[in-house]
Write a structure and sequence with these properties.
The protein is mainly alpha-helical. The protein is 55% helix and 10% strand. The two termini are 27 Å apart.
């Protein structure tokens, strides 16, 4: 039982992104699991778990923390992967059941991509919220000014189309997304 290469660095990046609870669920011996967890920087360990125990743990964690992501690669992980908010299967080493059950498959078995995916999803959410605020703000402004007769309808249409271009350009910022250099 040895950790995957660079897993400690990946977990450090996830902590830097604000993930506070990194929990290892394993069917392995408790003593070995605790030793590996300490070595890689996992916050909590639950060992000697059967598949139904992992499933119960995921349900408990969801009640306690809300959204829960789980990474797994085996048949024993499939029920917990299916129940977690986001199930992530390790593609190359993963079983077919784990791959079919998960929401996301890391095909190259590279955990190093996980911080990028988390950061990109957060950036996407922020841009979506910005775009909704821009769109709704412009629409409300145009309705009010059009009803009050402050702006002609033709200019309101031009302003609305301009806001559409602004929203699209804002979304294009995601093409340049990258993790901050302090995390590399």
């Amino acid at each position: 039982d040895v950790p995957r290469p660079r897993v400690a660095a990946v977990l450090a990046q996830l902590r830097n992104l604000g993930l506070k609870h990194l929990i290892m669920l394993t069917g392995d011996n408790r003593k070995v699991a605790q030793q590996i967890a300490q070595e890689i920087g996992v916050t909590d360990v639950e060992a000697e778990l059967l598949p139904e125990d992992k499933l119960a743990t995921i349900k408990r964690l969801q009640k306690e923390y809300g959204a829960v992501a789980m990474i797994g690669d085996g048949v024993n992980d499939a029920p917990a992967l299916a129940t977690s908010t986001v199930g992530i299967a390790m593609g190359g080493a993963g079983t077919a059941v784990a791959l079919e059950t998960a929401d996301v498959a890391l095909m190259a078995d590279d955990l190093g991509k996980l911080p990028f995916a988390v950061g990109l999803s957060r950036a996407s959410r922020a841009i979506i919220q910005q775009n909704l605020a821009i769109s709704l703000g412009v629409i409300v402004l145009l309705i009010i000014t059009s009803v009050l007769g402050l702006v002609q309808l033709s200019w309101a249409v031009v302003a609305h189309e301009g806001s559409t271009v602004l929203v699209a350009m804002n979304a294009l910022r995601l093409l340049g997304y990258g993790l901050p250099k302090t995390l590399d």
